[in-house]
Each structure stands twice: as structure tokens, then as C-alpha cells.
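Last lecture ended with a question: if I hand you only a sequence, what can you say about the shape of the protein? Today we answer it with a concrete record. The protein is Ubiquitin carboxyl-terminal hydrolase 32. Below, first the input exactly as provided, then the predicted structure, then a couple of comments.
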Amino acid sequence: MGTKESKHACISYEDAVKRVSDAELRRLKDAFKKSAGVGRLYLSRNAFQQDVLCEGVPPKITDMLYVACGGTQRGISLKDLLCGLVLITRGTQEEKTKFLWNLYCNDAGTYIIKSDYVRNVNLAPFESVSLFAQGERVNFEQFQDWIVKHRNATVLSNWLLADNCVSLTSELETPTFYQSLAGVTHLEEKDIGDLEKEFWRLKNTSQNGQIDLQFLGPLISPPIPKNALTGLFNAFDENRDGHIDFKELCCGVSAACRGPGVERTRFCFKIFDVDRDGVLNHEETLQMINVLLFVAKENRDAQQFKDLTNQHVISDLVEFAQRRSPDGVPSTLTRDNVSLTAEDFMIWNVQCGLRLMQPLLDLIFELCHIVFGLWPQCKHMEYDIVRGWLQREERRPYRVGQFWYLISRDWWLTWMQYTQHTSQTCDYCKRTASQRSAVDEALVCDESFNTHSLEQHDSYSLGSVSGSSGISAGRHCGQHRPGPIDNSNLITANPYRNVRTLTGEGGHLKRDTPLVQNHDFELVPKSLWKAVNRWYGDNLPLPRQVIQPPNLEVELELYPLNLRILLHQVQTAPNSSGASTQITSWGSTTSGGYGVLASGGGYAAIAASSVLQPPKRYLAYTAAFSRLATVRQVGEFLCEQLRLKPEDIRLWHVPPSSASLDNSAILLEEDTMCLKELLIRDNDQLLLEIRNKDLTWPEELSSLASTQSGQVGAGPGDRRRLTRTSIMSVHAPGATGLHNLGNTCFMNAALQVLFNTQPLAQYFHRQMHRFELNAANKLGTRGQLAMRYAELLKEVWTATTRSVAPLKLRFCVNKHAPQFAGGGQHDSQELLEWLLDALHEDLNRVMEKPYSELKDSNGRPDKIVAAEAWSQHHARNQSIIIDLFYGQLKSKVSCLSCGHESVRFDPFSLLSLPLPVENYVYLEVLVILLDGSVPIKYGLRLNSECKYSDLKQKLATLCPLQPSLMLVCELWNSQIRQVVADEEKLRTQSSKDLYVYQLPEQSSVRTRSNSALSMHIEQGLKDIQRSSALITTQDSLSSLSTLQTSNRSSSRVICNGHISDGQDPAGPDGSHELTKYSNANTNISSSSVGHVHELQPDDAGKVSRCFGKRECMPHSLFCFKDKLAPATNPCKTKIIKIFKSIFRRNWHSFSPPSVYCRNT
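The predicted structure:
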């Protein structure tokens, strides 16, 4: 036996396909594709074991079945797998025996060897002797005779040869989602599939991907009244999660359309029961009456409801309640308190003679078919749905921005004859016979027409598209289903069909013969067009938009402006013969683009071309726009479609009379003007100019190239580009802008300053520079800059355009000042200084500059020295620039030794003045008072040069604290970072971490600047943090009068060089004083503590530390947990009281400092 190569199949693939149904074959193919993977042709061995067999099959048996079914090292193909599965499930006894033979035989397929067979199947000794009685191997005939008699010899033979051992399709399959949903609704599986397609289309259209009230409102209102939108949405949204899922949509459509009358009425009750309490209260009932009357008066049978009012309906409800009440019991329902339960609502709908509920039921029925995608059950129902929806829309006036679609009258008549004829054999026709005017008995209704029959006629419909033969046949025989909507008889031939169109207008309507509504075409709203298109398909949609011209009524624009969009080509003309795009949908559009195609390719910016090679134009796109669309809307639409930036494009109008001339385009700069006001007509050309990568405009380069080459239009008047504004309005002289030619805003700013200097502008405007041009001056540009500047100034002051391009001047600047070349950014002052100097040298009246030596002032008056200096400068430099822009700057140099002063007057043209800058700092200070009140945060604005003493003075005007009672600290991470001194300058980095603590009034006797603390405030950050509480205590005490010692044990406090005795240090006036201990060698001994180190003079700012004395520190600041004997300390109570009084509010809010005491 070998298992490396596959065995020959017992049945062929064609025979296997005949033994399975189409559904089974399709299911097997889908399962194979899913298990093998997308794009793979073979099923792996692991996938065969997991998906075809199961994991419980032994690996050895799996390998045998894998090879027997045609498995190789690459895998099993679909054909081999299908042959194996069909043989196992539906094969004959001979075929199954042959399959078992292939399992056990050798690679050649000639014999079964005893050792391999016994090892694989674990035969009993008896069966082994009976099979191999004649030798160690057997052939197929011997094996076939033996396996028939000993079927139960092996597990595989017993399983495979048994009748109905395994089935290819399980009869107890789990129902699909569609089957489960169809079982709980009144919909068929095909209906659910149609609803799912429309559901996902709506979800993909929504901005947030959900069908919520905000998205659904514009789709269904109108015709649904706005006051009923929320109720209708809640009727679908069962779980009240704010959006409608697919299951809710199917259940709602089933209840509103396909359910019995009671269920449809109950669905309407859900619309009005907003609070879902099962009862319509007075407000909900009045809302119901308003909605029912509004819908009824918009219905096609509105004539019978025109005189009906709210009071009539309320009276009918009151009478209904009286009839429903038991005999002798008065009804509680009055005109001022009208309420209905669900049961009363449904009974009133049946017994009410007004029949107000039927128009709402019909509207919801039509809504589910038109908007939600449910297909009609028969063609007669389709006719009623379309007729009801269309008549309701036609009664409403046109709305600006609304789209209506044109349908050929020929196709419309064919559809009407197909759908409007009724038959007595149709169930729907029987129910609606009273609503129809006539019944054509000659035509027999096809009851088999349903949603499934629409698909069956697709092949016939597609065959009747070409020509009008299908339409003519449809006229004579109304039973034939019309083909896709054909509007070819309404449009003319498109001469630019090989050019891509950016809009979805559909085509050019015929103009030679006027098209008349109801004679040549029919109009349907957008929502109805989508439904008919979904049922029949279309070849050419013709949407048209409703507009409102100024001072006129709204109208439907049948003939929009079809424009040709031109682009520039740089080197070779791109191939614009792309296939025309088939329009499938419009989507929401603006008045800028007359319908937009779904896909729009990007367009990269044109690379900068050579200056001397004017770019050519070519037809790139076509587009249709409303004649009321503004230039801004057209530009935004083109930018959106071609993925361009609005600041990188300009629009030009190319009149048809001079379309062949390159310099005849008119720049469209008035963004708010519409195409009609700009005299743009149908089939005109619009040039879409896209700025180059170096920020130059191709049209400006073309103008310069034409001027240099001497082509037509090279004169001063012809070179100037016209704009529609210049033609239709008067332009103010000098109010002309300069184009940015690639980060040239620095140059434009300097030029605009010079252009508006009146003396200089008049000098060049009167051509006076020609008489003073110094072309021989090597220090200038030999007159080139002056000539280019004069030309540009004349163009700015005489042009009728809103902007011009300073191309020639820019090239001249780049030539003579390479530092300003390229596309980089530069300083406008530097360019202005160079420009004035170059213009001065080009217009210098001094041809040869004489040598002169500047004399010293020698104490002479400034007036004489200044006149002498200016005379020497004027002898070498004389021009209009010197007269207008130059002055003298006085400089004085004094000798520090002898006091001699030397005064000079130097000429200057520019002075750099500093701009005034706000020199303030903003601080936030949190003030904490001693009374325990809530801290208050103050915001202060101070000069950045102020000190913290100024902060205290400013803060004293806002809070009830004197500057002497303020302690300013910087806190970080709930710890005191630093106690700032009054003389320090404000720091902006700590502006948000400032805290001001109120000090006790006793501390006003001394200032912090005179205390020892201020002298050592920067010493030891840890000491400051740990002793900050005691520091405050020190400021609250007055100087201790004397320092006494005794033989008995007394306690002293040593802090920053200060010693406090244990006795009461109060003086005669009641004040406290703390004297500085300054003895160089003083020994303090104590029998209980021991030796204390000597205090040196430099130790005055440090803390003498001791540990372990809990009576020397507050209770919450214990450093050790050991239990010590209590000791009396007269200073203890006083320190803790003052410490707590200062930090009462923040006792636990920050890391408290430690108080170090020493008992002596």
C-alpha cells in the first residue's frame, strides 16, 4: 500500500455532477472556496480533515481517505473531492467496493498485501485466514467476493457498504437568516433580500453609517408631515437605540405593508403613541388628528376631506366614546380631554365614517416600496403606488434645489398599458376594484407576477432596448413587460462623447423641436425615479434641477449650460479620448455642478514650463452647470472633482468668437457673479488654469512669451488680460494687486509701498525717468530695473484688471540680485533697500562721481556740519530716490580721556524701528487666610521687570491683606519649593505655582528683609522645606529677652542659629523676642541627652538636628514610633499653637516640615 500518490477515481466528474442538484453543487462550490481560500484551486490535507471529515477520525484513516479521494501533495481539487463525496454518499455497491479496493491496494493497484492490510485494519485471525487463504496477496476479484460475504469485517466496510450511511445534504439543516426572518414576518425570502440591498445602500449613503432620524428625515419628509417624523421613526426603532437596523426595518415593513389590517392599524397607533404607554393622551390625540387631516388633504381623494376640520374629528371621537360606554354610564371623554386606548383606536378606525386612517395607510404603504426598496407583489399594485406618489408630489409646488427626472413619453405609455389594466382573477384587483374607474375584461391578469417574475423577464427586457420596436410592441400588447427606461429620443447626438464628463446631466435635450411635458416626456421626482430604476433599470437618466431666477418664480431648468473645460498641456498633449463614463447615480449635488459622477480622478499640478514656450490648451472635460451657478460654486465643484486646492486654480472664459486665439480669454474674478451675468452661453469654453509648482500661472508665462516673441497681441493694450469685471465695471486707478510668483510676497509688499508713493509714481507715470536714465553706471543695472519698474507701475495704475503679474520685474531682480532668486522666503526690507539703491544708480544724474574728503566737525555748529556733509553726498548722488527717501543720521563720538567730541552726519534711506511689544507677565496667586476660609485665586498682570514686592502691592488692592502680612511661596508637588524674597524679580515659570499665606499681625513688627532668615534663605533646600513651619513661627515671635540656663533640665529650641529657652520668654509688654545666639564656643550639656556640638558662626543658618523627642514636635509630625516618657516643655504648647494657626487650612495638604528641638 502506498499513500503518496492519488488513486484513480471510481466515477467521473460528469457522472458526479449528474447525481447532485444545482443547489447542492452551488453549496459545495461555496464551501470549497471558503475552506481552500480565495483564489486557491486545491484543498489542503488539514482542511480536508477539519472541514470534510472531522477531528475524531484517526490520522491513519484520514490519510487513506485523502489519497482515495484524489489527494496529492498539492491538495485535492474540487472535481476529485466532488467525485469522492458523491461516491461515498450516493455510489453503488460496486463503486463503493472499488473505492475500498483503492484504499488498501498497492501503488500499482494490482494486489492487496497481507502485512499492510492487517496492519491498517486490525483484522481478526479468522477474517485474515479467510481472505489470505491462498497466498500473501489477493487481487480485485478475490477481494470483491470476500468483502461481499464479510461486510462487517472492518469498520470502514461496515460503514461504507451500509444503506444510507451518510447523506450529502442534511435534512435537519439550520434555517438561514432569511428563512428565520421570513418565518416571523409576512415577507418572503426574496422580499428580505431586496430590502437588504436597499438597506445597505442607505447605510453607505449616510454620513455616520447609520439610518437615524437625521438621515431618514429628508428622504421621507415630504410626503410624511414633519410632526409625524419622530413617531414614524420610533415605530420602526423598536429598541429605541437611535437608529434602525435591518431586522427592525423588515419587521416594520412587514407590519406596515404585508400584514393584515389589524396589524397595519396597530403600526399606525405606534406612530402616535410617542411615550409608548398604550394610550393616546389628549396631546397625542390632537397630534394624530392634525397628521391624519394633513395626509388626507394631500391624498388623491382630497376632495372629500377639504371641508373636514379638527372639531369634526373631535366630535366624532366623543360620539364614539359615548357609544362605547355602557348603558347609563356617561363617558369621561370630552372635547377638552380626548384620549384613546389601542383597542379603542382600532375599533374607531373600523366604525368611523370619516375613513381618515386609509390615506395614512396608503402613504406608508407607498413609502415602504418607494424609499425602503420593497418590490410590488403585482403590476397593478405597482401602478397604484407610482400613481399615488406622483400625484401627491405634483400637487406640491417646486422647491429650489429639487431634482426631477425626465422619462420618455413612449416608454411611459408602454408602462401604463402594462400596469393599469386589471383582472377579476387578481386578488389585489379584487380588493381595489372600487377604487378603479374601469376594468378591461379583454386582458387577463397574470397572477404569477410577483417579485420573482421580475427577474424572469430580465432577459426579455434587455432584448427590447435597441430602437423603438420594443416600445411599439408594448403599445399594442400591454401584457409584455417594458424594458429599461429609454430616453434616447429626447437627446441629441453628443459630439464630445469621447471626452470625459464631470457631471451627470445625462445629455443635451433637443432644441430644434420644443419638448413639451405630457407630450414628449413625463417628470417624476428623484425618489420615484430611484424606485422605477430599481424595478426596470435605465440607459440614460436625465435629471433636471429646480431654480429660481431673480425676481421670477421657480422653474425647472430643462437646458443647463453644457460647458467645455480646457486645460494647459506642457509638452505633449495627453490623450483625452477616454471612454465616456456611464452614469449610474447622481447623489446629492449643489447648484455649482449640475449632477456629479460617483468617481472623480485626481489631477496633479502642471509642472513649471519654460518661460519662452507658451503652454497650449486642450479639451479635457465637459460639464453641465446651472445658469445661476456662481463662479465660486463652479470652482469649488471642479476642485472637488479633480482634487485641487481652490487657491491653485483660476477660471477663464474663452468666447466662441475668438476661441482660436490664445490671448482672448477673460479672467473670471468675481466669485459671486453667476454664469448668466457673465454672459456665458451653452457650449462655451472655460479654461481651468492650474498654478505651477513654483506658484507661477501658465497664462502669465504665456503672455510674457508672446510679448518677447512679438506675436499677435504683443502690444501694451493687447498684453493686458481682460476680466469680466473690467468689461462691465469701472476700475479705480491703482487698486491693482500683484500675483504671487512663488513666495514673492516680500517683493510685492515692497512694490506696493513704492507704487503708492505719489511723487515717485507721478515721476515714472510722466516718463520723466527716460530723461535721467543712466545706462552707463556700472553700480546699477544699466537702466534695466528702472525701465521694468516703469512698465509695471504704468500697468498697475492704468490696468482695468484686479491683479497683474510682475514677471518682467521679477526676472530683472533675479538677474541682478541672485540672493533673491529661487522660491525661498526673503526679507522685504532687504529687497526694498536694494531696490531703492538700484533705482538710484539707474537714475543718478551724476555721470562721474568726484572724490571728496569728509572734514571733522571741530566743534562747529550741527547745522553747518550737516549742510557740509549733505553737500558732499549730493555732489556724488543726485536722483529722485535721493530727493524722496534719503536723510541724515547724526552720530557723536566722545573721548573718555580728554572729553573731545566728534560729530558726523551720515546719509540713510531706511531706519529699523522696534515694534511695540506687550511686556507683561500674567500671574495666578492663591491666597490662603488665617481664618480658615476657602482660598481665593487672583489673576495679576504685571510688568516683567517688576519684583515680588510690587506683586504684594498689587495684590493688596484686590484682597484684604497688607503687604507686610503676606508670605509668598512657590509650591511644587504639594511642598514648599521656595519662599521668595521681596527683592527678587518675577519669574514667569512659577506664575501658576504661587501661594500667598497670611501671617499673624505680630509679625508686622519686623520685616523679612531684616531677619536672619532672609540672609540664609537660599541655604539648604531641605532645611527650608523641613523648617518652613518653624520659620513662620519665628516671625510670629518677638526677640527673647535673655537666654537663661539652670542646673535643672530645661528645654531649648535651636533653629537657624536661634535658641529658645524652655521658660516663658514674654516680656513686660507682652511681646516675644528671639535673640540670636552668636557665642563662638558655648557648651550646652544635659544629663538626659548628652553632648551637643558647638555652634560656630557659620552654623547660624543651619539647623541643629535631633531625633526621638516627640514632645518637641507636633503630634502629626512624629519621626519615630517608639514610646518615650513624657517630658514637660514650656515652649511646646506655644510653638504648636502658632504652627497650627498658620497652617490651619493646609495642615494635611502638603508634606509638613519637621521641627527640631533639643532638651538641655
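Comments.
1. The chain has a mean pLDDT of 73.
2. Residues 189-205 form the longest helix (17 residues).
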